[in-house]
Write a structure and sequence with these properties.
There is one protein chain. This protein has 375 residues and is α+β, with helices and mostly antiparallel strands. The protein folds into two domains: 1-130, Beta-Lactamase (2-Layer Sandwich), CATH 3.30.450; 217-369, Histidine kinase-like ATPase, C-terminal domain (Heat Shock Protein 90). Helices cover 47% and strands 22% of the residues. The protein contains ten helices and twelve strands. It has helices spanning 2-25, 47-51, 55-58, 75-82, 126-177, 183-214, 227-244, 263-279, 311-315, 337-347; strands spanning 29-34, 40-43, 87-93, 101-110, 117-124, 222-226, 248-252, 258-262, 286-294, 297-304, 352-357, 361-369. Helix 5 (126-177) packs antiparallel against helix 6 (183-214) and helix 7 (227-244) packs parallel to helix 8. The protein is elongated.
Length: 375
Amino acid sequence: MKEETKTENSHLVGKEITYREVFERSLDHLMLVDGHSGIILEINAIWEPTTGFTRDEIIGQHFTTVFADHQITTLEEFERVRTHDNVISTRLLKTRTNGPLPVEMWLTIVDHPEGEAILTVLRSIKERLETEEKMEEMNRRLQELIATKDKLFSIIAHDLKNQFHVLLAFSEILRQENDTLPTDERAFFIDQIESVSRSSHDLLTNLLGWARSQTGKLAVNKETLEINTLIRSVFRELQGSLEAKELEFFEDVPPSLRVFSDHEMLKTVIRNLISNAIKFSHRGGRIEISVAKHDMVAEICIRDHGTGMLPEQAARMFDPGAESTPGTENEPGTGLGLTICKEFVEKLGGGMRCESAPGAGTSMFFTIELPQQQN
């Protein structure tokens, strides 16, 4: 009988040692809580390296002290949870330095030498949540790329196709009736062909730039640029469009001001904004461009005195899915110009804003970095 008792005791001791080893080596945070007082009776070894708190700092404290959230703040609430065996919930563990640690919590009631206890298993879900967040971001990016593709195909199928139809039609008239057309009509068709060709070129330039921007293939090559030279270059490109609507163009730009930017991206932004100002200006109006220094940046303003916008129109003006509004003389658009401007300005490290009111025109502001010697 004594031998049997001795054997049973040895067996129990062996089980206790095995239990202790499993308890200590578990990669989950294990915690025994007194079922009557809520005091922590025991924790395993993983707590200290992951939370920064030692065993002595945790054992003897109330169970609520280890949590960073406040889902359960009293023993009564904990009692209600523990009446349902194997309850799972998400909690936040306190850590000394790294912020709350998200965990999944399982509760089960166990026997303990000091009475009924609650074994709490807390499994870190930090990596899982980070993975889910990355997957959500990838899915969002995929949806954006799909929308980009759809927008590109829509523009190519509709806008470019229409412009080529115009080119073909005018070219056919010139080819068939060149010898009989009056000089003024011939000049009109030639002007139209030039205008549509320039519009098609600008549209393709914007499409390619936007596509590269959306797919992450747009390289930013910053250099020191003289802003006046760049503005005059854009003015020469758009001079025909300005004259066609009898628009005056005014500059207020410091003659020696230099900026630190990407030449082609900045030129695209200025060209698109001036083109937009031309589109929504009334015949015989004026467009103004001014540049002012503010601390570390230059702020460029392009202002027209045209139709202006309602607040709800201004709120969605940078949305690539926004429907384009015809100009004052029914000039068409794609809805891409301002989207490209905003994306390019942000890639260049600046910001963009708008001031507009119906009938009062629109002012578009954007900031560009200054070279260090001019800061």
